[in-house]
Amino acid sequence: MNYTHPEYLISSAELHKIIGNDNVKVFDTSVLLHQVDGAHRAESGIEAYLNEHIQSAGFIDLITDWSDTNSALNHTLPPLDLLIKAIGNSGISQDDEVILYSSGHLMWATRAWWCLHYAGHTNIKVLNGNIRAWKNAGLPCGSGRHEYAPKEFTGMAKTEVFTNTQGVEAGLAQSTCTINALTKPMYEGTGDFFYKRRGHIPGSLSLPFSDVLDNEFFLEPKTLFATLESQGMLRAENVIVYCGGGIAATLDAFACKLLGQDKVSVYDGSLSEWVLSEQRTLTIGANP
After folding, report:
1. Looking at 38-52, 94-108, 154-168, 254-268, which range is the least confident one?
2. Which residues contact 43 (CB under 8 A, 6 or more apart)?
3. Are strands 97-101 and 31-36 parallel, antiparallel or unpaired?
4. The pTM is what?
5. 249 pLDDT above the threshold of 80
6. C-beta neighbour count of 90 within 10 angstroms
7. CATH 3.40.109.10, applies to 6-157
8. Beta bridge partners of residue 205, listed in sequence order
9. Which end of the chain is less crowded, N or C, counting CB atoms within 10 A of the terminal residue's CB?
10. Which residues pair with 53 in a beta bridge?
11. Cβ neighbours of residue 15 under 8 Å, at least 6 residues apart?
């Protein structure tokens, strides 16, 4: 069994063969998360990038440049026109082959992939195994800042790959396969960390983001198929994935894409938005 869309991933060896080509743009997308007083505090991964990154890689600032800094929520999408401008300012045109990785967790690379996919880019890859695979292979790294010249980006937006609270509520009313990508304790509401209120969106199922990875490599196709199908994600007519803030959810959603489930969207505000209204209930425990 093979991935339906193997072109969404690239290995370190494959990247090493093409890095340096004019139309190949490699980016570190790192963000560091810290738990402070029961909440997540995000810190740009720029310092880690400046210290060490894949040779000739640029840096995408997902916190300020590719997020809505006017939103009360963290990491949510900026307006489409501003995202398109930010993509171009990063040095990306629609003709470029874009390779994404993180010197932190791989979820930031899949979040950047999802943003580019949403904006209409069609040639984007995630480095399978992340920067650790590159370094373990003894491939060249650099330091300091590398910037690509700004480009004009144009694309046909795929607005359906993100959804909002109303979309989640409508989906649940239609028995849409809705997936919580957080850890089991967070899903069940038993962990020390939670988003203001404990539990999960009623009717949603659990598939922790870590379950689709093995040491920052996506599971082999047969194992990944079984993992996703354990919650009916590949046979579902539509899938919505959420987490705490729309980041970890992109790992589960990207895994769906790898195996050909194209009717999958990410709840951008996720639990951070859901819990803002007491009228939106949460379920405690292991059952949907």
Report:
1. 38-52
2. 31, 32, 33, 34
3. unpaired
4. 0.96
5. yes
6. 23
7. no
8. 179
9. N
10. 142
11. 26, 54, 99, 127, 134
